[in-house]
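subagent[fold] <- orchestrator: predict structure for attached chain, return tokens only, no commentary.
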Amino acid sequence: MNIAAPSSRRRPDSMRDLDRRTVGHLANGGTTDLADAPLAVPASEYTDPARFETECQEIFGKLPLLACFSGDIAEPGDSFTFDAVGPSLLIVRGKDRKARAFLNMCTHRAAPLVATGQRRKLIVCPFHAWSFDTQGKLVGVPKKECFDDQDRAARNLIPVPVGEWGGMIFVKAHPGDEDIDVEAWLGDMGPQLLALDLAKARPITFERVDAAANWKYCLDTFGEAYHFKVLHATTIAQMSVPDVALFDAFGPHHRVCFTNNHYKDCVGQPETDWPDVPYTGSHLIFPNTILYPAAHQGGIGLYRLFPGESVGKCFTYMSVYRASHAPDSITDQSLIDGHNWNIGIVGGEDYSVSEGGQRNLEHAPKGFKMVFGRNEVALQNMHRNIDAIIGPAEG
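subagent[fold] -> orchestrator:
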């Protein structure tokens, strides 16, 4: 579980190929990567409470989930809490610099141990001051004579599966001492993410955004450029070409590359004259994480979507990190300003439509199905991967 530390500002090996594909779409009049056929999706994928519970158990309860970046617990004693999918988890870096994860629960009487992440030499329970070291070992019990011959080792913190690779820390939301093989889980997506030098990314700010919509409806909004021209006419569409995008699948994960306006200057020009367009691929780390570089701002955006308390609710953890290559001329405040701008778009434009669509689906006629067009290939891919785990929805 060593932290990979690739060189900064490296683009994926296939970046020139991505450039060529994008310019090709523009030269052809604004085409885009396509699926073989449209895909009909039953409304029950977004409204069925039983299916929702199965998703929570089989997807969010069992699969590796990106909990944080390595920079969130950069030094020994640093800790991070993660409680988005049920049990509260505590992630901490030990003296040996290894990341470990535990249930955020004292083994005395189950009280929560840590409310917020901070650097500490010991993890001390706020209830009765039982204390644990950063490897989870119980090291202090006030009035220990009152506990007779209790096996001290049996009262160590309860581990959960964890893995660290490429500057990312993944967990599974259940007890267990498994080391998650993050590199294997990411597969061919891994090299694309290594190019972002996430191991050196520094956390800047974080927000939680709630929405009255199913988590998949909100996640769908991140996967296609078809809606840019209408929904984002005064925002994203001013910087990107609507409905021109590249799609690449990496097992259950995928990448969508939207088309920066700078690519228009490449059409009809020799490659040697093409501008160096920053890599801004939007990566879906299955099942719920969008990770993308905001290269022109020197930031890394991280959006993690989670099921809410019921089938028609969800929330998103929206974070921005300072990229390792960000020049000094880009201030942390400018990253915060850009982050707030994105929140306004996601919450005020995308999620407002998601909430209205969710209400309509809940009252739609029996058997109603939405349809994902051939140009919404990333959405098709995500839904098929979900179905592969829990089966297709009825309807």
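orchestrator: received. Logging for downstream: Residues 66-179 form a domain with the Rieske Iron-sulfur Protein fold (CATH 2.102.10.10). Residues 1-10 have pLDDT under 50 and may be disordered.
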